[in-house]
Design goal:
Elements lengths: L19 E13 L3 E8 L2 E8 L6 H7 L6 E10 L8 E12 L13 H6 L1 H7 L1 H23 L3 E2 L5 E2 L11 E4 L2 E5 L4 H9 L4 E9 L12 E10 L4 H31 L12 E3 H10 L13 H15 L3 E5 L22 E6 L2 E8 L4 H10 L8 H4 L9 E7 H9 L20
Parallel strand pairs: 3-5, 6-10, 12-13
Antiparallel strand pairs: 1-2, 1-4, 2-3, 4-5, 7-9, 8-9, 10-11, 11-16, 13-14, 14-15, 15-16
Helix pairs in contact: 3-4, 4-6
């Protein structure tokens, strides 16, 4: 069917006063009075009012509007009228035709009282009905685009690494095993090894945005079994500081772009400003972080080499109080809690040249300088009691002149969580995957 009147978005109606336009969207609200029929129609840019005066038994529009249900998909063609009494931008549409493109069943499966798990069951409706939920993905798009722009400007090549692996990556823990023809395969828990292969292939700087799989039986607000990772690997670095400097500049660029494009909308829907951070971000070693926290009363059970969530939040609060900064790099993690391929400090061999980045107390990134010397990698794997047979393809990368390099892995969902003040990574993910959720 040919529609001579092109679609106009609700946000673009103001300049079209007096014109006949076509608006497509969903029925948000129906008010069917004795003399008047009011339909609020919503698209992804806003909501407008359609106003129809009943014309009696011979009025074809009256019966069509009377049959509408909330969330039906409709196309309304009519004249845009300036009416200051209308709350929705002082505009209304006087309809000429009303087309029901897909009638919604009268009883919707979710409402404003539905719990979070039930809303996840009907995620498409949940997102459709809430402008704030849609804004999350608009912000995600802008942040991702800005990160890509920054990475391209820094000479990065965007790569797409395999998500199916013949052997379990890294330590072999927390991986999903699946059947692969006559043998087993594993879902990649990180593109780490493949990023390093790209460095060994002579691709100077590598950038990837893609899925990451973690078989963690974790039920917290910040964990998912599948999430989107932002990964970077940089060759010919002088040290891990080069990696941290790259990330802080990338994040500052992305946040500036999000603030420019979405700042007022984020303030309206989430009640907080997007703060563009000053550079550089504060840095604190793990040893110093532990000393500061213990002096302030942090006392986790047992001997801790790492920070628990309470410690991360307390450290971030302390840094915020002292420097006014929302970000902090925690550096020089002990060897025992870092992978075998993290480079160790020459001065303090019990420490790695690695970091986590905390934002408002939530870890959003892990990074490090990698060990690029073949003999040292073998020794460090042996120190951790690891066999190297399944790692031979990876280790071969370091036998023929691999340069010094380092990189980072960032969780995009966690970045959105902190930026928008969301309670859970579920709200920063379109279709969440966790230990108990594989649908929809």
């Amino acid at each position: 069917m040919i529609h001579p009147t092109p679609r106009v978005l609700v946000a673009d109606l103001r300049p079209r006063v007096g014109e006949t336009v076509s608006v497509s969207g969903w029925v948000n609200t129906l008010r069917l009075q004795r003399k008047m029929q009011f339909v609020l129609v919503r698209d992804h840019t806003g909501t407008t009012q359609v106003t129809h005066r009943r014309g009696g038994p011979d009025d074809p529009l009256e019966s069509v509007i009377e049959s509408l249900t909330v969330e039906s998909a409709v196309r309304i063609t009519g004249r845009v009228v300036d009416n200051p009494v209308v709350n929705l931008g002082g505009l209304e549409i006087v309809p000429e035709t009303v087309e029901v493109l897909n009638r919604a069943e009268p009883l919707l499966p979710i409402d404003e009282h539905s719990g979070p798990e039930h809303r996840l069951d009907w995620r498409f409706l949940d997102v459709r009905k809430r402008a704030a939920a849609q804004l999350v993905f608009a912000v995600q798009t802008t942040a991702e685009r800005a990160m890509r722009e920054f990475a391209y400007g820094e000479g990065c090549t965007e790569m797409h690494t395999p998500k199916l692996m013949g052997t379990a990556s890294e330590s072999g823990a927390e991986v999903f095993r699946l059947g692969y023809f006559d043998r087993s395969a594993y879902l990649a828990q990180s593109p780490q090894f493949y990023k390093q292969m790209a460095i060994a292939a002579g691709i100077d700087r590598v950038f990837e945005v893609g899925p990451v799989f973690r078989a963690e039986p974790s039920f917290t607000s910040r964990h998912a079994t599948e999430f989107t990772g932002v990964d970077v690997e940089l060759a010919w670095i002088d040290g891990v500081e080069d990696v941290m400097a790259f990330e802080e500049r990338m994040l500052a660029h992305a946040l500036a772009e999000v603030a420019r494009v979405h700042g007022p909308a984020i303030e309206e829907h989430f009640g907080q400003p997007v703060v563009v951070p000053e550079l550089p971000f504060p840095r604190v070693t793990m040893a110093e972080a532990q000393r500061l926290l213990r002096a302030g009363g942090w006392d986790p059970a047992g001997v801790k080499e790492d920070l628990d969530p309470e410690g991360e939040r307390a450290l971030a609060a302390l840094v915020k109080e002292r420097s006014g900064h929302e970000f902090v790099f925690v550096t020089h993690y002990p060897v025992g809690i870092r992978p075998f391929y993290h480079m160790r400090s020459a001065e303090q061999p019990e420490l790695t040249l690695s970091f986590d980045l905390l934002w408002k107390g939530l870890e959003i990134t892990t990074g490090a300088q990698r060990e690029h010397r073949y003999d040292v990698l073998l020794k460090q794997a042996a120190d951790k009691g690891m066999g190297t047979e399944s790692l031979q393809d990876y280790l071969n990368c370091f036998r023929y002149g691999c340069p010094p390099h380092g990189g980072l892995g960032m969780g995009l969902g966690r970045v959105l969580m902190v930026m928008l003040g969301l309670d859970s990574i579920r709200d920063a993910t379109f279709l969440f995957r966790g230990p108990n959720r594989l649908t929809p």
